[in-house]
Structure formats: C-alpha cells, structure tokens
Amino acid sequence: MNLYLLANIIVCALAFIGFVYGATKFFGAKKALYGQMITFAILCVVVGRIFNVSRLLTGGDIIGRFQLGTLAAIGSFIFFFSSNFGALDSIVDDGSDGFKKYRRIAVIAPLIVLAAYFQLFYVGETALVWKIQGAVLALFASWSSYYHLKHLVIPDVDFGVVKSLRPYNFLALCYVVSSMTEFFALSRNNEVLTLVSCSCSAVVALMMIPLISYGLKKSSM
Predict the structure, then answer these.
(1) Fewest CB atoms within 10 Å of the CB: 33, 50, 60, 125?
(2) DSSP code at position 220
C-alpha cells in the first residue's frame, strides 16, 4: 500500500466517524444550524477522500492532474466560512468601533495563507496544475481563516458562545495549515509529508464535531 493511499484512507475513515457523530447530534428539529454546517463541511472531506481512494485503487494518480477531491476540499472551506459568517459572526460582532482592532488582527490569518501560497507554490519548480489548484484552495482557505482567527481573539461579551467555540476555531486553523501543507507535499510528490499532513487533517476532522457539540451545549446557543 503506497503512502498516498494510506493517507487518504486515514482521513476518510476518521472524517466519516466525525460526520456520523455530527449527523446524530445536529440533524433534527430545533438543532443548531451552526453544527449542521460544520457537519456538511466534514462530509465534503469524506467525499473528497472517497474520490482520491477510488482513483488510487483503480490505478490513477492524484499528482499530475486536476483532481475532483480538490473541489470537496474547497467545499469544506465554504461551509466553514458560511457557518462563522452566517450563523455566528453577527452575534459576536455588532460592527461597532470597539471591535475594530479584532477585525484588523483577524486579517493576519488570510494574509499568512496567501503569503504561504506564493512561498510554497512559486518558489522552485511547480507544475501549473498545482499553482492553479493551490491558488483556488488558498483563496477559500483565507476567507475561512479570517473568521476562525477573529473568533479566537474577539472578546466574549454577552453570550458565551465565542469562548466555548474557541477550541473548534483553533482546530479549524490547524486544518487550514494541514490542507495547505498537503497540497504543497503533493505538488512536490512528497509521500511522507503528505501522510503527516493528512494524519493531522484526520485528527482535526474527528475532533471538530465533539468540540462543537460541547461548545454549543455549554453556551446553550
């Protein structure tokens, strides 16, 4: 079994467990939309890895051409972004000047993601397909990372939900890092780094839903 196949199986298996747990916790009458959207993000991870595993098992490769698994990764970032932007941010930030400095701090995250993209994918020889895939992934990851960092640093004034969801937002930032690292490793055909980054993504995907479940229960959101 090659390391690319092993890496994708690990992510698929742990993310599937996370998805099933989320489906049992957040789908039903009067369940939190925030939890549902994160559960769909984890489902995107599962679907993308199923594609990669199927491709590798049928003799294909995930290195030299555009892969549909990339679209699933992008989909996960769309759900991460939408959950924080649509379901949470208006609760914790009323747009007043008092929170302006936290908005400015949060901009650091997308700037780092975009800077990392140019450093990782434009230094050295990188195939055009990875420059394009990496750029699209970095764009959506940067949008997501803004709110993850913002909700890590912004004070919890009234509701308690920001504080209770900080562990999740920290893990989500870790997922951004591991995803970017994986794409870099794939662009350089580095099996070991791919396995390491995928293992990190797998652990994060497994832990996200329990942390959100605990956080929402604690804050009674």
Answers:
(1) 125
(2) T
Determine the pLDDT at residue 158.
61
Residue 217, Cβ neighbours under 10 Å: how many? 12
Structure confidence at residue 39 (pLDDT): 95
H or E stretch at 192: helix 191-219
Place of tokens 């800077």: 115
Longest dimension (CA), the chain: 56
Single-letter amino acid, residue 72: A
Q: How confident is the model over 23-33, as pLDDT tens digits?
A: 998 887 778 88
DSSP string, 33-99: HHHHHHHHHHHHHHHHHHHHHHHHHTT--SSSS--HHHHHHHHHHHHHHHHHHHHTHHHH--S-GGG
Distance CA 88, CA 204 (A): 21
Reduced to 3 states (helix: H, G, I; strand: E, B; else coil), residue 159 is: coil
Q: Three-class SS of residue 202?
A: helix
Instruction: Tell me the two tokens of residue 181.
Output: 């690292």
pTM: 0.90
Q: How far apart are CA 130 and CA 73, in angstroms?
A: 14
Nearest to 151 by CA among 175, 167, 137, 140: 167
